[in-house]
Amino acid sequence: MALTSLDDLVAAQGDLRGRRVLVRSDLNVPLDGTTITDDGRVRASVPTWQRLLDAGARVVVVAHLGRPKGAPEAKYSLAPVAERVRELLPSTTVRFAGVTVGGEAQEAADALGDGELLLVENLRFNAGETSKDDAERAAFARELAALVGGADGPAAGLYVSDGFGVVHRKQASVYDVAQLLPHAAGGLVEAETAVLQRLTTDPARPYAVVLGGAKVSDKLAVIENLLGTADRLLVGGGMVFTFLAAQGHEVGKSLLEADQVETVRGYLATAAERGVEVVLPVDVVAATAFSADADHEVVPADAIPADRMGLDIGPESARLFAERLADTRTVFWNGPMGAFEMAPYAEGTRELAKALAEVTRAGGLTVVGGGDSAAAVRSLGFADDDFGHISTGGGASLEYLEGKTLPGLSVLS
Q: How many of the other CB atoms lie within 10 Å of CB of 255?
């Protein structure tokens, strides 16, 4: 898919001084109260803002945080994010408006000078952002376009889509506003799309996909699609217990989607027919409860005690996974190997990250597929450059790999 790029937009529009640009960024960061615990998405957004600011544009950033229900909720305010943006852009005037559109937000946008940036309050404090009603969504999109002067006149507003984590959503700030203003994909969306194209179009081989996380049902479509592309499929996390059950093993109190066992059994058969190697854990860390303080032990994956639940892959499994990744040239990873937030169950994810870092050092392409995976590698002390690419959009990445058309990309093509 060919996207209109930021370079294309700048070339077509010429001088951006005096022009306002609406940038849809993904600033949906994890917060502990008002403290950002992982600022990866904010840092990933800076290059596109900086490119526009350097060109003299007046930048209005819109984004969401959390899942408010169409009305303001203090815990989801973007105010803490605005403080981090100021720290990351120390030489730029950065303003924050406590509303999204109209009133204070419109006044602040109208007052912007060249090379200044305004972040407005959470998009999802407005019902029109996520509405299923096309007219309601379009009306809110017009209010967003008004922040940058609308679509009319010699200084008409421009739109840059740089929130890859939401391009799979048909929302006002992602889809509808792009139909109102001259538009382009930001650098982050371009980079994410280019990486995913490498994963789906003639990837360097061997090509391994590592899937974890809680539920196999969240990844059914991507498994089905990748069975025609990948050479190896490595499975961990909570979803692995449905695979083990499909092989006839007892999984104790582990997370199990019983209604997906037959589907997974079919995937295992398809993989065998197509010569795709499926690698499952040979041992797991099994605990008496979902707690860091619970009694836990390493047990064979095919003999989990009935009174225990698996909360991480075991050390032999970690070694097996590392071995099966050692010669790969392309790896896509989405989902942690266990409940990494609790120290006793973090080692599987840590060892997998080490294995991917080795592939990176050997010149392979390693892609960490956003969401919990990105949070895990950072919380476990890994640097972003230990991997070829850390995605900012878990759900969007998966839907792209499923072969779906993503509204926020199709509208930019």
A: 18
Per the DSSP assignment, residues forming a β-bridge with 207 are 330
Sheet order of strands, 277-279 included: 277-279, 232-235, 207-211, 330-334, 365-368, 389-390
Mean pLDDT of 241-251: 96
Helix (H) or strand (E) holding 311: strand 309-313
pLDDT of residue 214: 87
pLDDT at 205 over 70: yes
| Choice among 212, 371, 388, 394 that is catalytic | 371
Q: Which of these is catalytic: 66, 98, 395, 403?
A: 395
pLDDT grade for 215, boundaries at 50, 70 and 90: confident
pLDDT band at 373 (very low <50, low <70, confident <90, very high): confident
Q: Residue 221 pLDDT > 90, yes or no? A: no
Give the C-alpha separation, 383 to 368, whole Å.
12
Instruction: Indicate which residue of 19, 24, 41, 253 is catalytic.
Output: 41
CA-to-CA distance for 38 and 381, rounded, in angstroms? 12
Q: Any catalytic annotation for residue 363?
A: no
Q: Which one from 215, 265, 329, 354 is the annotated catalytic residue?
A: 215
Whole-number pLDDT of residue 228: 87
pLDDT attached to residue 394: 77
Q: Is 41 a catalytic residue?
A: yes
Is residue 354 annotated as a catalytic residue, yes or no?
A: no
Residue 154 CB partners (closer than 8 Å, separation 6+): none
Q: Is 215 considered catalytic here?
A: yes
Q: Does 153 score more than 70 pLDDT?
A: no
Find out whether 26 and 163 touch, Cβ atoms under 8 Å: yes
pLDDT-derived band at 9, boundaries 50, 70, 90 = confident
Residue 83 to residue 209: CA distance in whole angstroms: 37
The residue-averaged pLDDT of 115-143 equals: 98
How far is residue 359's CA from residue 382's CA, in Å, rounded to a whole number? 14
Handedness of CA 96, 101, 102, 106 (dihedral sign): positive
Which range, of 45-59, 268-282, 376-390, averages the lowest pLDDT?
Answer: 376-390
Whole-angstrom Cα distance, residue 165 to residue 41?
9
Q: First vs last Cα of the chain: how many Å apart?
A: 7
Please provide residue 365's backbone torsions phi and psi, each rounded to the nearest 5 degrees: -90, 120
233 near 281, Cβ under 8 Å?
no
DSSP letters for 69-94 = -SS--GGG-SHHHHHHHHHH-TTS-E
**SS3 of residue 133 by DSSP:** coil
